Amino acid sequence: MTHISKKQRAVRGRQLAGVQRPRVSVLLAGPLLAMEAPGGGEIQMLSLARALPDAEVRARIWRPWEDTLVDADCLHLFGSRPEHLEIIAAARRAQLRVALSTITWYGLEQCWREPRSAVRRLASCARFVARSACPRLPSWRRRLYESVDLLMPNSYAEAQQLIRYFNVPPQKIHVVPNGANPRFAQCDPQPFVERFGLRDFILYAGRIEPRKNQLGFLHAMRGIDAAIVILGDVVPGHERYLAECRRTAGAGVTFIDRLEHGDPLLAGAYGACGCLALASWYETPGLVALEAGMSGVPLVLPSAGCAAEYFGPLASYVEPGDTKGIRREVLRALSRGRSPELAEHVRQNFSWRAAAESTREAYAKIL
């Protein structure tokens, strides 16, 4: 995979430094029920909304029951969801430009691992094979990607998938890497240690659902002599999956509900843990990895997705179905200690300020 360099992200920012730019007004919106089980996509949207004003963009979260679309220059949607099609149609009637942060990943393994019946998973796999052979096949995703003015994937690997599987023209794509809040560079472990009495544990953070593969991870780590923290809320509809995870977990596993992004306990979890593990079926790349990486926490990440594009050799990678490999790499990471090189890499290359500048450049392409 192509590694995103600091130079690639900064070059246009330097070119624009000191140049008076017209302010742009943008409405940001995610799925209707996004905040029922907020994850990386929702944090991305909220963080950009806070960072964009420093990039000369008037940005706010769209509240359709309060705001009219005609008050903005652009509508920025987050996530590849069918419900966005109707919103895009409304934006077109208001003569509004539309950008979409796709936040997606495609693969045969991912289709098979969807939390659905075997019949529906087989059908999903068949559709993926057909689309691989013929990207012009009609689908709601293809209509979604065709109906917007610009697609903003989080990596070049994700961009290549849009081109390959949906025949998206490369000129319609602008890659915007994710970011992390600089406050995570200095993570005080004390609030978390005082609250939960845990330190040097294995942290597994994210929404609890089959795609995140907490169950496979717990099977892989059975019987180890180290504490494990599963941090996150269950996605509505997957309560049985959470119950199975709890049955599989040993005495050394602690389940903690999702912590608010601004809660000192979240930064404390990063500060107190010995390593961060994600054995998901894919990540794009996983905001918790960037946040933990800000302070050099050893990272074990899934090989599927774009994590390697962000972290290169500074993280370890595992196949989500390889229980022995997961166990081996997590125990190695736990013994490594924090990496100043990883911390510096994330701090220098993946800030929300840099993401906001890149997003501003994307808006400029369509306005």
Q: Topology, pairings included?
A:
Elements: H1 6-16, E1 24-29, H2 40-51, E2 57-61, E3 74-78, H3 84-93, E4 97-101, H4 108-112, H5 118-133, H6 140-147, E5 150-151, H7 156-166, H8 190-196, E6 202-205, H9 214-220, E7 228-231, H10 239-248, E8 253-256, H11 264-272, E9 275-277, H12 287-293, E10 299-302, H13 307-311, E11 316-318, H14 323-336, H15 340-349, H16 352-366
Helix pairs in contact: 1-16, 3-6, 8-11, 9-10, 9-14
Detailed description of the structure:
The chain is of the alpha/beta class and about 375 residues long. It folds into two domains: about 5-180 and about 350-365, Glycogen Phosphorylase B (Rossmann fold), CATH 3.40.50.2000; about 180-350, Glycogen Phosphorylase B (Rossmann fold). It is built from 16 helices and eleven strands. It has helices spanning about 5-15, 40-50, 85-95, 110, 120-135, 140-145, 155-165, 190-195, 215-220, 240-250, 265-270, 285-295, 305-310, 325-335, 340-350, 350-365, and strands spanning about 25-30, 55-60, 75-80, 95-100, 150, 200-205, 230, 255, 275, 300, 315-320. The protein has a six-stranded parallel sheet with strand order 8-7-6-9-10-11, with helices on both faces. A five-stranded parallel sheet has the order 2-1-3-4-5, sandwiched between helices. Helix 3 (about 85-95) runs parallel beside helix 6 (about 140-145), helix 9 (about 215-220) runs parallel beside helix 10 (about 240-250) and helix 9 packs across helix 14. The longest helix has 16 residues, at about 120-135. The protein is globular, with a radius of gyration of 20 Å. The model is unreliable at about 5-20 (pLDDT under 50).
